[in-house]
Design goal:
The protein is α/β, with parallel strands linked by helices. The protein is built from 16 helices and 15 strands.
């Protein structure tokens, strides 16, 4: 029987792609493995992974995909997409159990790696005596906060949204209670409960694999390994194996924008892109446009139906010599792509854990300037103009740029022979052989 690794990604597009990239990385360390990826359909429409899946299936025969039966949720008034994902994943548990049993008929399953959103399935792995690992698709700072979540929960009866204070968590800068994801800002919210249950599962896992690298988040990683984030239980081993980035198909999408970049001076263009769920009101779009125009900077802006009509090949754009700055929604994959390209950022968070990521990028890593929004999340054209010019022309922009380039070199070193991420990956794969 061949050895196999089974992976269970969240259907959120960024989570899904980074887990498949982790699968490809595992194969470079142990080519004899076969990798089986369980697919669950997302409970909302947010871009399709179909062409990406087809491409991986065609180019990497050791990776196979198993589509689980579609779950139809009862129509509810819940608007948090995190809650919808948790519910679909929870209801998929019997299908996951079935899939693991079916794969184990022809393979010896060495390990089961699940997205942290799929924590419901850890119990199945234990039942079947398969080591269960979590894959954490955000950074180590966010992992530290997630691990510490039960402790925060026990120290107060208030919701984050009602606190109006700064909280001190191990390994990260003081965080305003308003910077927690809207999914956990209210204790009475179902998503809050799910995230809390997830946090209680970390100590029960065989380990946590994180899409980051040691130098980028040294302080958060030290707090985790010192046991400060899970004071009442055992901290599982943590493996930093990043940055994991899609490197093939860099030029898929709109090549027109790459042609336009060719004719621009070096580091002169500011690139704006807001992720698969980033949608703005008409009023906000007008403010962005007027701010960009007044800044006088060259810009390339990707927004559905605006400026670049289709998806831009983000990795290729960020790595283009003409690009000198990136206005981003702070989705973790985009952050790692910018770091790997050495492009400094203006951080404009929109949803999920992105406000938290902004805090880490600005205060801890010092590789971004913050976009300041009002209490309703609205950003004026004046603020857009000010931050874009600050990044491209000021001393504070220059120091962020230098720091980002240092991190680009550190990322490259981490992935090289003997580098921290390669060593962590090889330690992880070795542990499955025993």
């Amino acid at each position: 029987m061949d050895d196999a690794v089974v992976m269970f990604p969240s259907p959120a597009i960024g989570h899904f792609i980074s887990m498949v990239e982790l699968g490809k990385l595992i194969l470079t360390f142990q080519p004899s493995l076969s990798i089986h990826i369980l697919i669950v359909s997302a409970p909302y429409s947010a871009g399709s992974t179909a062409s990406y899946v087809a491409d991986v299936a065609a180019t990497t025969p050791s990776i196979s995909f198993h589509r689980l039966p579609t779950i139809t949720l009862p129509s509810s008034t819940n608007t948090h997409y995190e809650t919808l994902i948790f519910e679909v994943l929870s209801l998929s548990n019997p299908h996951v159990h079935q899939a693991l049993l079916s794969i184990s008929k022809t393979h010896k399953i060495k390990t089961f790696i699940m997205d942290f959103f799929c924590f419901f399935s850890l119990s199945i792995a234990s039942q079947l005596n398969i080591p269960g690992y979590f894959f954490f698709t955000s950074g180590a700072g966010c992992l530290a906060a997630s691990m510490y979540f039960p402790t925060l929960h026990q120290t107060t009866t208030k919701s984050f949204k009602d606190m109006n204070t700064f909280l001190n968590l191990p390994g990260i800068p003081p965080i305003s209670s308003s910077n927690f994801s809207s999914a956990v800002s209210d204790r009475k919210n179902k998503a809050y409960e799910y995230f809390l249950d997830m946090a209680y599962c970390f100590p029960k896992s065989a380990g946590v694999i994180v899409n980051t690298f040691a130098v980028l988040e040294a302080r958060a990683l030290k707090a985790i390994s010192d046991g400060l984030c899970i004071p009442d239980s055992t901290t599982p081993p943590v493996y930093c194996t990043g940055p994991l980035i899609v490197t093939n198909n860099q030029t898929d999408g709109d090549t027109e924008c790459l042609n336009w970049l060719e004719s621009q001076p070096s580091q002169s263009v500011i690139f704006l892109c807001f992720g698969s769920l980033g949608l703005f009101s008409m009023e906000q779009l007008r403010e962005i446009a007027s701010g960009l125009e007044r800044s006088g900077q060259r810009f390339l802006w990707v927004e559905k139906g605006l400026v670049v009509k289709s998806w831009a090949p983000q990795v290729a754009v960020l790595n283009h010599k003409s690009v000198g700055g990136f206005v981003t929604h702070c989705g973790w994959n985009s952050v790692l792509e910018a770091v790997s390209a050495g492009v400094p950022m203006v951080a404009w968070p929109l949803y999920a854990e992105q406000k938290f990521n902004r805090l880490m990028l600005v205060e801890e890593m010092k590789i971004a300037l913050p976009m300041k929004e009002d209490e309703n999340g609205f950003v004026t054209g004046l603020e857009v103009e000010k931050r874009v010019n600050e990044l491209m022309q000021s001393d504070s922009g220059k120091s962020v740029r230098e720091r980002t380039i240092a991190m680009k070199n550190a990322a490259k070193a981490a992935l090289s022979e003997g580098g921290s991420s390669r060593v962590a990956m090889s330690r992880l794969v070795e542990s499955w052989k025993h």
